[in-house]
Amino acid sequence: MIAVLVVVVVVLLSQGLLKSLNYFETVDQALGQRASLGTKVIRLEGVVEPGTISRTNAGASFTLTGTGSNHVFVSAQGSPPQLFQANIPVVVVGHFVSSTSLDFVGTQIMVKHTSNYIAAHPNRVKAPNGTTR
Amino acid sequence: MIKLSQRLLGPLTLLLLALTFWLGLWVTPPDAVQGDLVRLLYVHPPIAWVALYVSFGTATIASCLYLWQRTRSMTMDRIAYCSMEISVVFIALTLITGSIWGRPTWGVWWAWDARLTSTAILGVFALAYLALRRANDDPTQRARRGAVFAILTAINVPIIHFSVLWWKTLHQGASVLTSTGQLNVHGSMLWTMLIGFVGFTLLFFWLLRERYRLEVKRDRLVASTVDEALAQRRREGV
Questions:
Q1: Does A67 map to a domain?
Q2: A32, part of any domain
Q3: Most B CBs within 10 Å: which of A118, A126, A129, as the mutation test of the B interface?
Q4: Which residues of chain B make contact with A122, given a CB cutoff of 8 A?
Q5: In a domain, A36, yes or no
Q6: Distance (Å, rounded) from C-alpha B209 to C-alpha B82?
Q7: Chain B residues within an 8 Å CB radius of A81
Q8: Which of B15, B103, B181, B213 has the fewest CB atoms within 10 Å, counting from its CB?
Q9: Is residue A16 part of a domain?
Q10: Contact (CB, 8 A) for B58 and B212
Q11: B183 vs A: CB within 8 A
Q12: What is the pLDDT of residues A82-115, one digit of tens each?
């Protein structure tokens, strides 16, 4: 019984289960496997570049950046979540227009906020190291 | 001393939780990114802490102590059972408060990422533990099987804890128990959160104590009804 369970677990792990537990591909990863991804639906993660957001009736378009000069042009449908803003990491569900294009068509935007919590009115709060933030 | 702390447990729990709510709702500032949504920080992480580590942890430790010959007693079994029952409630609250926080911040009520999915699986495990106990009337067998099951499923707890490090998740990483030791919560927000952690932890122990007392009474009642039934049969036999 236990032997069977161990075998099942090992098989699942070796079949890439651990890898598939990643919720999204980063912009860098997606661009790295651009050719093999094609127009497959993925979750794409990147940071919203400031000054590129334009809201339309159908949704919003903006540029997602990875590290360095990696970037993807996203046009997403549906109203973005209320925290959606410049410089925030987001996860967009959608697909590339073609296997060579940098244009990404999104059907849903999710905001992946960080685990940093800082007061909105900086002068009221002191950081643990004594500086006011 | 022990008696005094027992008497103070209830009032202290109430005081700390009231303090958390007061600080969380009125004193602490809104967050730079999240605004007032950050106030869930004083409720959701402490509840998740109690669900995963305090209550599931207590159930696991008590199960180990039950299985170990030298510390085996019905007390350990009862502690394991009662803690697991509380864990079910807190896991449910974790998922509910997380969902309420997720909708306005992430934009979705639920995401099948590693952190959320593994937490939901732990909830199913905890329910399965309770079901397993109901499936058996023999107290010794019930205790032993329950203990083994609890220890096996506890493997999921470190998986949940490290899920945000091992895999890419929509759920944010740690704010307090970070791998670098850096605190990502500032000023009064941090203190309020920590008071919340202590408050909800005390709430667990208060609930455990009350639930444990109830379980002892229930066991006594079952024993006395069995004795009574036996006595009646003997009278009938005579």
A1: yes
A2: yes
A3: A118
A4: 32
A5: yes
A6: 9
A7: 104-107
A8: B181
A9: no
A10: no
A11: yes
A12: 899 999 999 999 999 998 889 999 999 999 988 8
